[in-house]
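Sequence in, structure out. Go.
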Amino acid sequence: MKLIDWLTFLSLVVFPFGVLARIPIKIVNIPEINLYILDLLVGLTAVYYLISSKHRLKLKQAVPLLIFLTIAAISLFLSSFSLTWAQTSTAFLYLLRFSAYALLLLNTQPVEKKYQLLAAVGIFTAVFGFIQYIFWPDLRVLKYIDWDPHYRRLAGTFLDPNFCGIILVLTLIILYKLYQKNRYYLPGLIFCLIALVLTYSRSSYLALAAAVVIHALKNKSLRLLTVFLPIFFIFLLLIPKGDGEGLKLARISTVYSRLNNWNEGITIGHQHPLFGVGFNAYRYYRTDTSSMLPEKSVNHAGAGVDSSLLFVFATTGLLGLFFYCFFLIKIFRHNRNTTALASLAALLIHSLFVNSLFFPWVMFWWFNLFSLGESHR
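Output:
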């Protein structure tokens, strides 16, 4: 096996372990940084792509992304004058992480092979999710180490039902593609669908609905809508009910929290319209505490906005938002098969409610899936 094959293999092995596969790093005067093993492998993969002329030539197809990265770097440089050295360094490391994951766009593996590999890690993600759901359903104790508390929800190794949910949605999209050619994928399809239902993640449900609608429109067929969606709604009716707030699909407490979060993001972006507050320096400009724990400055959710595009606007301004959207359009034009379009639709819908486009495991998935190595028609 070539070096790049080993790096890809190890990345796929590590992927289902989620946030559990991390290496805490402590640097003097800088808050603890979590380096995930997946980050390390992706970083090595990115270096390989950069030194390989075969892959480096494809960077010309990613001009909007390169411009966005430049604007993100400029925005962080400008904000560094009002931040401490530790704050700037922490934000820079996140920019470095995003850049490394973005280079996965240079992946040249055949599309069909990618589908099979991603489907495999998605199924293992669901397996680990069920293990957590059965043996450790009460994650409320995690609030003491700055994670959101969840109760009787399938959160898996990501410790978050929303992020676990979008990975399961993306897995279902690929499994359905594979199922159309081979019926042996049906058990995996059902297994991951049940796992998704148990996340109680409404943003993930909407993402799945968007994917199904896009699939139906692209193929000009209502069969998927008339068969798949009713089955999904039946599962929703059969899932366990309880007293926990997270188990109530009609809950509105999180709606108010999200509205406050969006309002804060818009306000901060409006105050710094051209270049934003600096890529991933958002946490240092936060003012709203109505929906956050007292220790929000270190909370795992405190660094972003509950909307990926709003996060881009607040941290890189209108310039960054323009070129990031231009990059998304480039991805759309390059990947026009049904699976790619359905996945992109699911991601965009989900990212309206959760900053999922910048979650490492989601970035790993979609940068690999939407790579510029070949045209996915």
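Check: The two ends are 29 Å apart (CA to CA). The longest strand covers residues 30-36.
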